[in-house]
Amino acid sequence: MKLSLATEEIATFYAKMLDHEYTTKEIFQNNFFRDWKEEMTEKEQEIIQSLDKCDFKEIHKYFVDKNEARKALPKEEKQKLKEETDKIQEEYGYCILDGHREKIGNFKTEPPGLFRGRGNHPKMGMLKKRIMPEDVIINCSKDSQIPVPPEGHKWKEVRCDNTVTWLASWTENIQNSLKYIMLNPSSKLKGEKDWQKYEVARRLKGVVDKIRSQYRGDWKSREMKTRQRAVALYFIDKLALRAGNEKEEGETADTVGCCSLRVEHIKLYPELDGQEHMVEFDFLGKDSIRYYNKVPVEKPVFKNLKLFMQNKDPGDDLFDRLSTGSLNSYLQDLMPGLSAKVFRTYNASITLQEQLKALTNPEDNVAAKLLAYNRANRAVAVLCNHQRATPKTFEKSMQALQAKIDAKNQQLEEAQAELKRAKADHKAKKDVKSKEAVEKKKKLLEKIKEQLEKLNVQVTDKEENKQIALGTSKLNYLDPRISVAWCKKFGVPIEKIYNKTQREKFAWAIDMADEDFEF
Questions:
Q1: Which EC number(s) does the record attach to this protein (predicted)?
Q2: Residue range 342-388, pLDDT digits in tens
């Protein structure tokens, strides 16, 4: 069946995702089909009644083949394409900020496609519409050269607002949220904001003991409101929970944070797994990622939770007298700049620093030190509940690693046999040449042993890491100066921890921190 242009384009969005888990989910299929039908002509709507009867395989194959063809291009062709991309980057990828030429982060709008969302997002599969110039607000200084819209179009608005850091913005049609074009993380502006964020968290270090003793005292308060705030703060501090914002009902996924927890999200056990006063949390957090945890809490917290749950239905708020706003304004009074989010940054960074001290052995080689670093980073990712699904390629890459190890073991056996022969040869001849041969074989054996150890460390690391996402905490919650100082102190090259883009983002920390830096 020949489709109209708009209908065909949307069909390609679905076809491209055929080998993706998303297209097997009913909610994705239903949302897609509803939005697709809306864009069809009347005649198409009459004929196409059911998604099950649509076969997208040929379209899918077309794009797979196209992709393969692109990969198989000769080097010169690839170079040509790269030059074209670089030319666009040169033209659109920079702006002038306070007289400095700064790199822009994302200078392209998102192309149309199907909304994916994370976790089981109720809107997955919906059609993300194409952004038109008429949707876009441009933000630049009065005396600058205003970008020209594409022919026959005009911008939604051009404004000159120097109190914000975005250069263009539009509203996307799925969540009705604002999207921005911002500066690259390596820009001075972003670096300064980053530095300030970690400085606030470092200031918290000085007052955190006082805050802790205060919320402990508040567990016995006569005011229900104060008690609820004190218990919520204990969770935010101890479990690094997000505060959770109030949301419009039915508009977005049903996700909660600490302040918006409902009675149904926790269970109390006077005793469980041999520990007293256990609380079991089970809820969907940001991005519909499930938070499941069983933790022992202090007795007064346990008693208070019982009290907060009394005479309430499962769907009622646990902290009914508390809002994120009131919690943050209370924190602001305790320390300027303090909000619930700062606790997450503080606890993440302090955990990394303590774990690195505990796990690093100065005598180890670089591979073993990196394993220690990743383990420390993992402790933080677990604290922050940064999970990921096991990567699709996991089994494949593990098999490849195992094959390398098998080959190395083979080499090791051969090298040991050769060393044995060389020793026997030297015993018989006792000359310089045969002695040199023994030394040479010894060195080779040592080298192979080292390589084997490195591969085994990689296996451990990969296995421990398969369901944990390290990147989020590394880029957003961990003061980079802790990592830089660790690298300098233990002789680990910084590029083993941060790739090129990350080194640009954290250039301020690399310049600033020496090996004695303490968070």
A1: 5.6.2.1
A2: 999 999 999 999 999 999 999 988 888 998 999 999 989 888 888 77
Residues 487 and 406 in one domain: yes
**DSSP readout, 262-277?**
BGGGEEEEEEETTEEE
Enter the tokens of residue 430. Answer: 């006792």
Range of the domain at 252: 189-338
Token pair of 30, please? 């239903």
Tell me the pLDDT tens digit for each residue of 324-343.
Answer: 899 999 999 999 999 999 99
Neighbours of 244 (CB within 10 A): 23
Q: Report angle CA 270, 255, 131 to the nearest 5 degrees.
A: 165
How far apart are alpha carbons 243 and 236 in whole angstroms?
Answer: 7
Handedness of CA 459, 461, 467, 472 (dihedral sign): negative
Determine contact, residues 278/299, Cβ cutoff 8 Å. no
Chosen domain end from 188, 213, 247: 188
**Residue 72 near residue 64, CB atoms below 8 Å:** no
Please state, in angstroms and as integers, the Cα–Cα distance from residue 130 to each residue in 85, 149, 171, 172, following that order.
21, 15, 11, 9
Whether residue 88 lies inside any domain: the answer is no
Positions marked active-site: 477
Amino acid at 247: K
Beta strand ranges found along 153-236 (DSSP E): 157-159, 168-171, 178-181
Contact 513, 489 (CB under 8 A): no
Biggest CA–CA distance in the chain, Å, is: 95
Tokens 């690399």 sit on residue: 510
Amino acid identity for residue 221 in this structure: S
* 429 and 359 both lie in a single domain: yes
Would you give the DSSP letter of residue 98? T
Overall number of domains in the chain:
4
**What tokens does 367 get?**
């591979």
- From the list 330, 463, 292, the residue with the least C-alpha distance to 391 is 463
Report yes or no: 13 and 114 within 8 Å, Cβ to Cβ.
Answer: yes
Same domain for 318 and 394:
no
How far is residue 39's CA from residue 126's CA, in Å, rounded to a whole number? Answer: 12
Is 362 part of a structural domain of the chain?
A: yes
Of 22, 20, 3, 23, which is closest to residue 11 (Cα–Cα)?
3
User: Do 183 and 195 have their domain in common?
Assistant: no
State the CATH number of the domain containing residue 467. 1.10.132.10
Go through 154-172 and write b for each residue having 16 or more CB atoms within 10 A of its CB, e for each that does not.
ebbebeeeeeeeebbbbeb
| 517 within some domain | no
pLDDT digits (tens, 9 = 90+) for 458-467: 888 888 878 8
The answer to whether 262 touches 316, Cβ cutoff 8 Å, is: yes
Residues 99 and 179 both lie in one domain: yes
340-359 and 224-239 helices, crossing angle to 10° = 40
CATH of the domain at 155: 2.170.11.10
